[in-house]
Amino acid sequence: MKLPHSADALAIDWAGTRLTYAQFDAAVEAWPAPPLHEHSAHDASELAVPDALICVFAAARQGRAVHVEDPAARPDRQSVPADAWLLIGTSGSTGRPRPLARTVQSWTDSFDEFTSVTGIVESDRVLVTGPLHATMHLFAAVHALWVGACVTDDPRGATVAHAVPAVLRTLVETAPALRLAVVAGTTLDFGAAEATRHLRVVEYYGAAELSLVATRVVPEPLRLLPGVDAEIRDGLLYVRSPYRVLGADEWVGVGDLADLGSDGELVVHGRGDAAVDVGGTTVIAEDVERLLDAIDGVRTSAVVGTPHTVLGATVTAVLELDDPVVLDSVKARARAALQKEAVPRRWVVVDRLPRTGSGKIARARVRDSLP
Prior knowledge:
Number of helices: 10
Radius of gyration: 21 Å
Distance between the termini: 50 Å
Helix content: 10-25%
Shape: globular
Oligomer: single chain
Strand content: 25-35%
Structural class: alpha/beta
CATH class of the largest domain: Alpha Beta
């Protein structure tokens, strides 16, 4: 990828490492290629962020592939496709992550549209709030460098932040110059929406296998990106996209329950495996979580199904609370607002819910942790 930006502008300001675009470009050019053989590829998985980004761009320039994977949970990869650039994995929140590979174009072809929606410009300082092996963070950093902005880990001077809602809620207190929040990973919740109401907020919906699927400027609805098609099959979302990973089917099943309007408006209700069947009534876990997260005293919540001999399942709520004494009021608010099947029958308070590398709640691990 070409870097046609001001040579003296900062490309990276991360943990004490400051690189101008001239320095970054020189480092990319000097980065050594791996030995040329059938399975050769760069590996940026355990590099510090500045070096990892240099390696990622060097791989693109050399026409080589690069691993950007969670060192603690690498996917089993039998081969590297000939056209591969990024070798990544699914988040691994349930089971072992699956290996994925994508081309340079499968991301860069969407950058013009993403830039138009977000309004990110060369003068921005773009805060990346999680590890690069989580694709939303890697996408944020690569796009920022493609635009000519500065990638940073310092919220104090950041003008743009990419974050999941749980991170965004507390981040705004330490980022006084922030003008734009880009939300992904999971649906914008009430707490994050309140914390960012003074900002421009762009939310996008995507998946590791597909990259961008739909975007919105809050409070507008999500709409499919140009060139992306979607269908609802038995309530579940299927997507056909030019941005999908190598080897993917033409239509990719995302696994989310969704509704689709005739004008491309997309409403995502949550993971199909997060639907709890309570006596024949389908309860969407994310709908209950959004309500719980909007109650004073609830930092965040996770809702899972618990097997029941008569009803099939009941709802269990696992909560992070500001103070455990508010639990009774949370229960009362939930009973008043939810249909009876959706009211949690079991309430569990924890210090911290398990999360994936990108900051999303790891629902399967929540479920497995319950006695």
